[in-house]
Amino acid sequence: MLQQLSAEELPKVEKEISDFINTYTSHEELKKSMLYSIEAGGKRLRPLIILATVKAFQKELTTPVYQTAGALEMIHTYSLIHDDLPAMDDDDLRRGKLTNHKVFGDALAILAGDGLLTGAFQLLSETTLSPSETVLLIQLLAKAAGIGGMVAGQAGDMAAEKNQIPLKDLQAIHHRKTGALLTYAFVAGGILANQTEYVAELLETLGGHIGLAFQIRDDLLDIVGTTEELGKQIGQDEKSEKSTYPSLLGLEGARQALAEELGQAKIVIHQLAEVAEFQPQIFEEVLTLFDLEK
Amino acid sequence: MLQQLSAEELPKVEKEISDFINTYTSHEELKKSMLYSIEAGGKRLRPLIILATVKAFQKELTTPVYQTAGALEMIHTYSLIHDDLPAMDDDDLRRGKLTNHKVFGDALAILAGDGLLTGAFQLLSETTLSPSETVLLIQLLAKAAGIGGMVAGQAGDMAAEKNQIPLKDLQAIHHRKTGALLTYAFVAGGILANQTEYVAELLETLGGHIGLAFQIRDDLLDIVGTTEELGKQIGQDEKSEKSTYPSLLGLEGARQALAEELGQAKIVIHQLAEVAEFQPQIFEEVLTLFDLEK
Q1: What homologous superfamily is domain B2-288 in, according to CATH?
Q2: Which cofactor does it need (chains A, B) (predicted)?
Q3: What pLDDT is attached to residue A251?
Q4: Are B219 and B243 in contact (CB under 8 A)?
């Protein structure tokens, strides 16, 4: 099911993004720079979650669904471009390819990020959803991506480098840095599928667990993964003496924490199946994406 | 009139911005960094134009007006922070104070810019305007600030450095780089004052002339101004061998081009007075802000 969504439906999300960039960008190098990072691929986890959520509630995938998923992927991609900059994480490789600034230079990479971020809100404002749904989707995205969400998480993450911080603080940082956008994916899917506020709250809880699972898995892969598998250099966290789940809990403790978050997520999925027209199988497939083995 | 708006009403715009940042930012240094650049002041030209436009159409200044003006100033401020970065224009001084990255470091300056940009859309999404007005204001702002507007203009501007380009190309760059946000200020003011589409089109034309006037004046001041007056280093354009109006038209030609744009703007103001309940005096005062003597 998820495989099918990924193979047949994600290309429609990608087309929404590239059509948008091709239509609106009035500077050739800027266009190339944005398309380079969008086309670098990756798992498209966030748009896939939006599609999976709408499908789980047994609704049709319509153009506004692809556009919302596209806007979210644009936000995610901008954040990667800016995070990779020399002034930030200073990464040369991303998804097995040179990072944006390595190809286009720092200035254009900054502008490509700014352009994708701004474009995400334009794309969302242009859907055929009702104005009130549109405002809600824009507002939640801005909150998730902004100064109480992802941007704050990134600022906290930098401060946590070269500093061992308590687990509670690390969780708060990751809740914002990666959790906020993943949570948005579930909640936006619920809104697009016309679900109740109560369901939206359950989706938010689910997103919280998935967000932490994602980060723990990411930290673990930096130790047990390979550069080839991940498309980026491993061992970076240890090199930068960054606080991570494995550095605070040990390898086995981090594995347990991951299992714990996925277990909590499963409980929420069962709750969702009790209160809505909902196919839990799709979400159980989504969970497997966060297993260490995948 | 403009003096009074500036003294009595702009502080309400500034309060909307600082309240927003203080309420939502969940990272102390990030908050400080954003407030530093917001509080660095400047003429607040863009929010002032929104207030002046609403007033010119004889409407009340309400909270949504201050919020829209605040969102626009947040976008403008983010663009200054990113433009000043070493990877971009590499400026140490802005409005007589150290630039953001000189105080907070490049990484936090990038994030402060990202946060202000994202926050502008959140703030706009939270007004009490009708959802359809809200979506329109968000869409126009994203267009003006984005990949067909300001971000593209900035990319073009960088490419034009160390290259003498034709006047037509220079105008196209400035139309996007500075014209788009100034035009937004007029058009958003018209929307907030419930004006017709025809009036909005006239406001857009007016914004185009004002945008070019602004840039020509800025280029001229880089030659005839002083660091003390401007709060930034002068002579930067010549040093970087940048294409400017004076470099293409000569000092006198640039002065004439400025007068020409302001003359065109005056014609549009008379047209506005013919079709709407409109006080032209306020706009004539606005024009004086773009005179070289001011």
Answers
A1: Farnesyl Diphosphate Synthase (1.10.600.10)
A2: Mg(2+)
A3: 93
A4: no
Handedness of CA A62, A65, A70, A71 (dihedral sign): positive
Burial of A239 (0-12, 13-18, 19+ CB in 10 A): exposed
Can you say whether the dihedral through the CA atoms of A184, A218, A174, A18 is positive or negative? negative
Does A119 sit within 8 Å of B139, measured CB to CB? no
CB A149 within 8 A of CB A176: yes
**What is the distance between the alpha carbons of residues B181 and B208, in angstroms, rounded to a whole number?**
10
- CA nearest A107: which of B141, B157, B34? B157
pLDDT of B151 strictly over 90: yes
The residues pairing with A49 across neighbouring beta strands, listed in sequence order, are none
CA distance A174 to B201: 46
Instruction: Tell me which of B18, B19, B27 to substitute to probe the interface with A (most A C-beta atoms closer than 10 Å).
Output: B27
Residue of A nearest to B132 (CA): A131
Bridge partners (DSSP) listed for residue B94: B97
In the numeric block, which tokens belong to residue A245?
């789940």
Q: Is the pLDDT of residue A152 over 90?
A: yes
Whose structure tokens read 């499908």?
A55
According to DSSP, the β-strands at A93-94 and A97-98 are antiparallel
